[in-house]
Write a structure and sequence with these properties.
two-stranded antiparallel sheet; 2 strands; globular
Length: 148
């Protein structure tokens, strides 16, 4: 089982979560943070392993508050928050070497991504069940993974 508790205390994880919460809080009437955080935690949970797939965040795919303009403003705020937070996180890591032993952990995490996509992701499962282009559907999967 992958231990995601350690990553929840990581400063980068906290910064990412704070950015997503700020986007939600600015639009709390149509997008309460706790609802979207819980939605993420539930959707990206690997039931067969009883573990989270990653560090979480927010998730929504059926968002319709009844106020189209407010919903669009919220979605734009999430995009802007991501465009601000993510490059900052990447820049902080650019010069860091991968710690010994972390490469294996990264490959295992990629394996969890494959498991999630093939078993639970609604878009992937729909495409595979309805005769979609398999090569296109699976093109987002990482080329190298590992299972413990």
């Amino acid at each position: 089982m992958l231990d995601t508790r350690r990553t929840q205390d990581d400063p980068d994880t906290r910064a990412f979560h704070a950015a997503m919460q700020a986007a939600c809080d600015a639009h709390a009437r149509v997008a309460p943070y706790e609802k979207y955080k819980a939605w993420c935690d539930e959707y990206f949970f690997l039931k067969h392993r009883q573990e989270a797939r990653g560090i979480g965040g927010i998730f929504y795919d059926w968002h319709d508050s009844g106020d189209w303009d407010a919903d669009l403003a919220f979605t734009k705020a999430v995009g802007r928050a991501l465009l601000k937070a993510y490059p900052e996180l990447v820049r902080r890591k650019l010069r860091h070497r991968l710690e010994r032993g972390r490469a294996r952990e990264q490959l295992v995490r990629r394996g969890r991504y494959v498991e999630f996509n093939l078993l639970y992701d609604r878009g992937t499962v729909f495409g595979l069940k309805t005769g979609g282009n398999v090569d296109s559907i699976l093109s987002s999967l990482p080329p190298v993974v590992k299972w413990p």
